Protein: catechol 1,2-dioxygenase
Amino acid sequence: MTTRIFNTPEVQDFLRLASGLKQDGGNPRTKEIIHRILSDLFKTIEDLNITSDEYWAGVAYINQLGTRSEAGLLSPGLGLDRYFDMRMDAEDAALGVTDGTPRTIEGPLYVAGAPVEQGFARLDDGSDKQGHTLIMHGTVYAADGKPVSGATVEVWHANTKGFYSHFDPTGEQQPFNMRRTIVTDADGRYKFQSIVPMGYGCPPDGPTQALLNQLGRHGNRPAHIHFFVTADGHRKLTTQINIDGDPLVYDDFAYATRDGLVPPLVEQTDEARIKEEGLTGPFS
Ligand code: MBD
Ligand code: FE
Structure:
């Protein structure tokens, strides 16, 4: 079938009608966006000769995404989240901003309201017996290179099964396990103890994985830790680090891996750590 009607005045007028552009009221920005998306969809249906069976399979798919709350999972899987970051990077580059910790995507598993700690936090509650101790510390710097005291570092990550608290299908984790908000000390420093996470995998029976299968792609992320860094008068940074050595460290289904976000790991015995740190606290 080669019928082409998209460019006829009837169809073009119908698109304006269905997008509300032919009447007052409503939200102009919504109308503009819906008109464009609907036009692109109509054109795609014509160009690819999409059948009504294919179309209704797509409608059912969107309902499945909603039922399983996976819209926010498909989004990074299709690279949309990364695309927004690419756009922000380009905007920054145009303004001459090219230094600082790279941004990367938030992902769908942040939960607000984690316990707040000063300077140091233990993130895990000790219940994950497979856990290998992980310690990370650093300093929050402003754009001018000066440390920022009182900045907020929100940290969240998965357990050794790749599951996040609040989203753990096993129901094994307490709320806010491996989620903390750390306020930087007088020198702008933060530190935390937790356990090395495992990479995340899309629910194998879910709609995101089903589409990735059709694309011949996997739905796995390397082990990673998420951060929001905020301070009054400064732009928020959303970023992550990957755990070096994970086989997927440069093969992330969500495209969040970036140069500069795979820090070197140092393996240390307990004895060496006690000797290095003393027994008097996190910053001794
Ligand atoms: C995650 O843990 C994640 O960070 C992203 C981006 C997508 C799915 C799960
Ligand atoms: Fe994650």
Q: What stands out?
A: The longest helix spans residues 28-47. The pocket of fe (iii) ion (ligand 2) is lined by residues 107, 109, 200, 224, 226 (CB under 6 Å).
